[in-house]
Amino acid sequence: MADKRSTLLKSVSKPGRYSGGEYGQVIKNKKAINARFAFCFPDTYEIGMSNLGVRILYGALNAQDDIWCERVYAPWVDMEEKMRQMQMPLTAHESGDPVGDFDIVAFTLQYELSYTNVLNMLELARIPLYAADRGEDAPIVIGGGPCAYNAEPMADFFDCFSIGEGEENLVEFTRLYIKMKLAGTYNRRDFLHEAAKLRGIYVPSLYRVTYNEDNTVNSYEPIYDDIPRRVTKSIIKDMDKAYFPKDLVMPYIETVHDRIMLEVYRGCIRGCRFCQAGMVYRPVREKTPEVLCNQAKCLFEATGYDEISLSSLSISDYSRLPELCDLLLDWTPKNMVNLSLPSLRVDNFSRELMEKVESVRSSSLTFAPEAGTQRLRDVINKNVTEEELMNTVGTAFEGGKSSVKLYFMNGLPTETEDDLRGISELASRVIDKFYRTPNRPKRAPQVTISVACFVPKPFTPFQWEPQDDLETLKKKQEFLRSIITDRKIRYNHHDAEVSRVEAVLARGDRRMSAAIFEAHRAGQKFDAWSEFFSYENWLAAFDAAGLDMSFYANRRFGDDEILPWEIIDCGVTREFFARERDRAYAEKTTKNCREQCSACGANKLGGERSWCPNTKNPL
């Protein structure tokens, strides 16, 4: 196998994707191991190595003496072709052992367009694609990540899912596996039954789904009385005590994020009505500046990276950001380490903050107004005004910036042509603001606007809303292109066909597994990569499965309808989502969690240093 692998690596591009042996990888004595865990990222090495969640879970599992967690990534097309020619199975990075020989095989589902890669990797690993076809010697296949909040489209391919935050959940799950193995009581059926009793573990095969004549979901019924009717997400209550790696696996090749990713807090105090992450990660739980500074120092000393990215959904909402920056700036400039704040808001940006994060080198600034008019920003509860945006870009221009990036969406609920026109007009006013700024740079300004198609996501106030049909999305994109005439404004937009498939997969039910299988059988993989995505293949896959894409993407879900993802309890109530949807149509905003509790329900989950005011009696 080693000789084959060596020959193989010499014949593919970027062999560093597959070689293993990186500084910082974890190697353990197989004889001392009770469970082998393959952590699979269903995309390329460069993307997977940049994922903070993978780094955290890799370390948390390997902190257990008798658990060995290894990494697995999707091989690029040239590598896959060679593997199939040479009849070589998918292997793990650390040991080079076949993935099919592991006890537990886990996939992180970060985006819906990775689903076909999951099936392709299972096939390459020689693991039966359907959970129902796996025998006693097959690994337990578990999924997690943000897409697992609606696990139904992939339910037939997974034995179970980890819902929520996995640092403790996955260790507990693996400990149960070890306990039953050592006691001689393990078999797949009994293990999955016991696992379903753990908080945050969803076993789809233990829940019967029935459908109405109109194809909507009728019910979810557990087949055992001792498993929960709904699966509540797992949560880390005290982030200061949460596992965080003291070192990192250092890649041999350039990755998407070659830097230290410092997780400042989880959750978001905002309530943007389109944003799933801002809802499912509630309540906000912050780390203290002292802990964060020590973690940053530790990783710098272990890696030598020259950039620290302060990671969160909205970094400028961190309640102790100035204090944290001051602690970091005590030692980062003299070590030529740059601070990066990638998720700034326009309503709490300052010159002082910009100067702090540019003490070593200048970086670009990106803001997300999301909508071109105040009316539509109120609908989506963005709580950002044009005055705040102009003040912010003015501050940036005075500080030496000449270019900014602005993110928007089209196809939002209640959107009109005036709202679309507002995107172009807002970008033009940013250009005007540049020329009205006294101490602006001498170089010409550049405003880049990136416009994504609205995708209705589970567990958001807009989860019931239809996506615009494909023709309408394309017309809106072309209209916006036609009215942007200033060369100082650069316009980018997402592929509407990709966004349509994303919406279908995001809101799918369990019957969708058949369509995903058909897409895989047609050769679909790397769907997030434009050169591999085929809308025609996806249309054919849904036709072959007897499913209508419009039923999932373009239909307004009923107020009383059981939604496919409601087998999961994310902590935020359906009643809150419905109230927020009604407020959207009334064009009313809702204050953020720091200003006022909106009774979303997340307080029942508890959490230390949380901005949810009702956490005195955590679970």
Report on the structure:
Helix content is 33%, strand content 14%. The protein contains 20 helices and 19 strands. α5 packs across α17.
Tell me the layout of helices and strands:
Elements: H1 2-9, E1 35-41, H2 45-48, H3 52-62, E2 67-73, H4 77-85, E3 104-108, H5 115-124, E4 140-144, E5 160-162, H6 166-183, H7 188-195, E6 201-202, E7 207-211, E8 217-222, E9 231-232, E10 260-263, E11 265-266, H8 277-280, E12 285-286, H9 289-303, E13 307-311, H10 321-329, E14 338-340, H11 351-357, E15 365-370, H12 374-379, H13 386-398, E16 403-410, H14 417-435, E17 446-453, H15 470-483, E18 489-493, H16 496-506, H17 513-521, H18 535-545, H19 549-553, E19 568-569, H20 574-585
Parallel strand pairs: 1-2, 1-3, 3-4, 4-5, 9-19, 10-13, 13-14, 15-16, 16-17, 17-18
Antiparallel strand pairs: 5-6, 7-8, 11-12
Helix pairs in contact: 3-6, 5-17, 9-10, 13-14, 14-15, 17-18
